[in-house]
Structure formats: C-alpha cells, structure tokens
Amino acid sequence: MIREWNERTINRFLKEKRGQGTGKDYKPWLQVQDIASKGRSTRTLGHTTKRVHHLVSDLQLYYFYLLEFDENVTDIREQYPLLDFHDMNIHVDEELSKKLFDKKTQVPHIFTVSFLVTRKAENGEHYYQARIIKQLQELEKNATLQRLELQRRYFEKKGIEFGIVTEKEINKQLARNIGWALNSYDIQDYTSLIMNLPHLKRDMVQYLSNKVHTFQSIFHRLEREYNLDEGLGLILFKHLIANKEISMNLNKKIYLNNKVENYHVEFTDEIGGDVRYAADN
Questions:
Q1: Which residues are paired to 128 by β-bridges?
Q2: Which of 19, 160, 162, 208 is least buried, going by the fewest C-beta atoms within 10 A?
Q3: What percent of the chain shows pLDDT beyond 70?
Q4: Quick check: 279 pLDDT over 70?
Q5: Alpha-carbon distance 144 to 152, whole Å?
Q6: Does one domain contain both 208 and 76?
Q7: Does residue 176 lie within any of the structural domains?
Q8: Does 104 share its domain with 206?
Q9: Do residues 227 and 275 share a domain?
Q10: What CATH number has the domain bearing residue 271?
C-alpha cells in the first residue's frame, strides 16, 4: 500500500502528470518508491515503450515480460489510475460505496489496475485490455473482491475488457526465460559484437544447426574464432532470441550444457538464409 494517502499526495501526483501520457511519455500513478510493498519491487526498461517500468511484485514482473514478448502489444501502462472513476456515475450499493473514500480522511480513493495494455488487432486497429495481477489467496478477501467489482463496473462502462490474472494463469518459467533473453535485447555497448554482427549471426546459425552440440560449446567456439571476451557468445544468443531472430522452446528451464536438440531451436529466414535450419525435438 501507499505510505501516505491524502489530498496533498493526490495533488502532487497530478502535478507530476502521473497516470497521463502514452508510450515513452507515460508516468505510472504509483512508482516503486511510493509503495510499502511486502513483495519485491522492480524497475526495468521496457523495449516496447522505451521507458523504465515500475512493477511492485514478481507476478507483475512476470506478466510484464510476457507482454513485452507479445508482438501484438504496442503499449504497456502499469499502475494505471482510474482518474475519472468518480465522474462515471457508476451504480454502487451502500456496501460498495464504503470503498470509494478513505475511512479516516474521506479522500476519494484513486483505483489503479496493474496494467492497461494496448493491442493491435488483425485488422490493424488498436484496442485496450485492463489487467489486475493478484495472488490467488488475495481473492479470498472480501475487501479485495469489492474493489475489483468497482473496477469491473468501471471498465464495463468504458467498453474495455477487464480481467484478473493470478499465478495460475502465468507461466513463470516462460516469463523467466523471456526476461533472461530481454536482458540482452540491446547490445550497442558491445562493440566487438556490433562490428562483426552479420558474420556472427551467420556462424551462430551454422553451429546451432548441428543439434548434437551443446549451447556452451557453441558459444565458446564462437568466442575463440572471433577473439571475443568470455560470455559474449551467450549475450549474442540471448539478443537473437529477444529480437525473435532465433526461436526455441522457452517453456522449460534452459541449461547451457544441454544439447541444442532438447529445445527445438529455429531461425528466421533473415539470418538463416534460403535454408531454414532447425534442430527438432
């Protein structure tokens, strides 16, 4: 929960233009430094938005990674506030109305959703999805369910799809693997990789196409042949996954001393040439 909630806090957030903007210009309503969180909070760079995202739990981080890797997602706004909630004339009964204002100060609550996601449909049009990320056990609390019901009614009136995501709906291993790869999305600081990138990609494809080799042996070979610092072979591999030039089975834990054949590694035509190499299961 936020450490202090009063009119001064609301006015400060509004002055800072929190909850406003899109893409790289969006500022989340709640930021890591504002939250007295029992979980682990994270700031992480988003490549979809080109800005730092504020995530207040591991579950939010995992879901964020899944969104980042989704080609149909064009914007991710975390800790998104429903600033016009009290102007929407949403019908509430007496019990729900108690959740609209702080008990002590009577300051109106600003409800937030974990993510407001912008997606691109097949016809090219954009639409929104609102997602609340909650641990399953939190849904056993009546107060939580009441707040969720208020938010559901809000988005129903807005015509925006609203959903609750728990740990049961999040593939944690997939999310961890995506996060692992995304750490090397940008390799601009690695001059030796940038200078030889077309050749390194070509040889990476060639070596990975031999499915009996281990990942580690391939990376070491690449580093020896190009006189690269140790570890740069792995960074290149992760970069190619993050940019979807290489695909593989990301649903299971990646062991670099395992053979390529265990992970169904494939390459795009862009780096694989006319021949589409594959190391099948």
A1: 118
A2: 160
A3: 93
A4: no
A5: 12
A6: no
A7: no
A8: no
A9: yes
A10: 1.10.10.10
Same domain, 250 and 206: yes
Whether the per-residue pLDDT at 280 is higher than 50: the answer is no
Q: DSSP letter at 259?
A: B
For residue 205 the two structure tokens come to: 């494809």
Could you report the per-residue pLDDT of 146-187, keeping only the tens digit for each?
A: 999 999 999 999 999 999 999 999 999 999 999 999 999 999
Q: Is 235 exposed, middle or buried (0-12, 13-18, 19+ CB in 10 A)?
A: middle
In order of 4, 6, 83, 89, 111, the CA distances from 100 in angstroms are: 17, 14, 12, 12, 9
d(CA 79, CA 110): 11
For residue 45, which of 242, 250, 234, 192 has the smallest C-alpha distance?
Answer: 242
Task: For residues 161 and 256, state if they share a domain.
Answer: no
User: If you average pLDDT over every residue of the chain, what do you get?
Assistant: 91
Q: Which two tokens stand for residue 134?
A: 């909650």
Beta-sheet strands, E only, within 109-174: 112-120, 126-133, 161-165
Strand ranges across the sheet with 112-120: 73-81, 112-120, 126-133, 161-165
CATH of the domain at 71: 3.40.1350.10
Q: What is the pLDDT of residues 188-197, one digit of tens each?
A: 999 999 999 9
Q: Domain containing 115: what range?
A: 7-170
Residues 6+ apart with CB under 8 A from 162: 113, 129, 130, 131, 132, 151, 152, 155, 156
Q: Contact, 192 vs 228, CB < 8 A?
A: yes
| Residues 117 and 133 sit within 8 Å (Cβ to Cβ) | no
The β-bridge partners of 163 are 131
Quote the pLDDT of residue 106.
79
